[in-house]
Design goal:
This protein is α+β, with helices and mostly antiparallel strands. It has a single domain, classed as Chemotaxis protein chec (3-Layer(aba) Sandwich), CATH 3.40.1550. Helices cover about 45% and strands about 25% of the residues. It contains 6 helices and 8 strands, in the order ββαββααββαββαα. The chain has helices spanning about 20-30, 50-60, 65-75, 90-100, 120-125, 130-140; strands spanning about 5-10, 15, 35-40, 45, 80, 85-90, 105-110, 115. The two termini are about 20 Å apart. Keywords: Cytoplasm, DNA-binding, Repeat, Transcription, Transcription regulation. This is Transcriptional regulator MraZ. GO terms for molecular function: DNA-binding transcription factor activity; transcription cis-regulatory region binding. It comes from hydrothermal vent metagenome.
Length: about 140
Amino acid sequence: MFIGRHDVSVDPKGRIHLPAKIRDALKKSYAPPFIVTISDRCLTAHPAKEWLEKYELLEQEARTPKERDLLRAITENAEEVPIKNGRILISARLREYAGIERNIVIVGRIKKIEIWSADSHEKATAGLLPKDLSKKLRELGF
């Protein structure tokens, strides 16, 4: 299970050193590699098995040309990323999509992680003041 926030940097070659908690969760519950793909404002990294299971479910239901086009876009924008020496390499194309330059935020999302540029993450979470967030969490039963 992936949880928490981790502030890390991208090296000049586009590699991200995964925090120990992320690596430990991956070893404990999942087999590498990660599948990294685009998301709404960031990148997501899924353990390969989890990603494949989701994709296969979608593929079984795809009937129309537009649905098949969506499946093509899903695979076209996904990359298998092995973990080497605790690091993953994010391609320039994916880094550009997410606006990732140097500083990033990795957010655990239970079965996947999100990889944000620090600036984009700050903008996305700017309206989540602790008082308001606490109230919303209580409404959800947390």
